[in-house]
Amino acid sequence: MKWQASHPPLDSEALGQLAPESVLVEYDGLRMFTCRDRSSRLLFAYQCDQEGDLWRYTVAPCSEKQLSRFIAGELTIVQMLSVPWGWVVDIRDGSDIESIWEVDPTALPDDYRPNPEVRLVPTAEPDLSIKWVGDNIDQGHVPLSVIKYASDKAISVVRGLVEYIGSREQYEFTKKQAQDYADLPVSHVTLASFQLSITLPRPVDEDVFGNPANEQDVRVASEMKRLLTKVVKWSSVPGLAKDPTTGPEESIAVLRAIQDLAPSGLTAVQSVELGGRLVTESRAESVGLSPETRKQARESIKDKVKELGPGVKEAIRWPERIQATGVITGGVFNVNAFFLSEVGPVTNLDSDPPEDIEEWPFGDMILFSFDEAVWRPSVVAALDHKARVTVIGKRERQAEMPDGVILANTMPHYNLIDFDRRTAGTSGRSLPPAPSRLLDI
Questions:
Q1: What fold is seen in the domain 321-438?
Q2: Burial zone of 48 (CB within 10 Å; 0-12 exposed, 13-18 middle, 19+ buried)
């Protein structure tokens, strides 16, 4: 046998007879089946090794719902075995249990685990496939920059919807929780053009051991599918769908997802095609996104921001720290604030490493408040000379805004942290990406 236990076996009768209840795969013997232990707990058995008439199985507990999903092709064999504890069982002549070891099935040798994509039935249609298309993207020639671009966009779409769900449902996600919810599994990668096939989490009422599922996990999974379905449906309508039953907050979240998916036309990616079960269920023949789609989504977001008014902060993800280049075109100096307009580029300093935001999605103005004693002379000089400046700002909370700033709720607003008036016409990178005094903010 390919694996030898480092600990003593259990009694050979510890689990009972393990008589097959449902034969899933039989070929010259039982390859895969279900059975029950002494306490009638449902078990899944997978034949992983053989030596003569001695057959070895990896056995793991499972639920009826998990088994149903496996039979339907929704789960892989590896997913059925991905539990923290189970057993390796040696059975001779198809019926006599010879040895049982308690194990962590996920820690067994690779030879004991099938290909991660193997299912009981042929691979099911993915929930959502995203295909990035361009003149220089084809089989055998997919630049690393395109792979990074596509991955970043897919993560951004899902993360934005997760943050919207958390805000609306008042879930206090930790950063890791939000990352875990957004880190959806990719079931397949295709390098002709570049395509990711994504599997959505399934809302289930109980876990593999029959315990009640976490209510928050169930809700997030259900809402994720609903919102991505809306992204697909809206994208399939020329000019984007206008749904009067969807409130402005949710509309912004959906439109932001569409904007993130649609190409800017400034990279190798010229169009994006959506497919998979969500497209099929939406009865859309095809869903294609272009730079024009991105423009339409951006304009629709602006309309929804105006409609939302004071509630805008609940719907839009403003980076905590940004570096932005623009022109100071106006100021409210009695409350130490100014407007930065003709904005671009804007760099998100929250990301690691800092990355440029291709198009600032909140219009062409950012509101900054500033410390009068430190920055007033520089701000006034920049206003007088109409010079392009590069600034670093930390996002303001509404409670921290000075009285009298009436636009605080209708556009992004930041507190000025650093200022450079010598950067006219540059890319905005002459300032350090994270000045030392920002680290403790």
A1: OB fold (Dihydrolipoamide Acetyltransferase, E2P) (2.40.50)
A2: buried
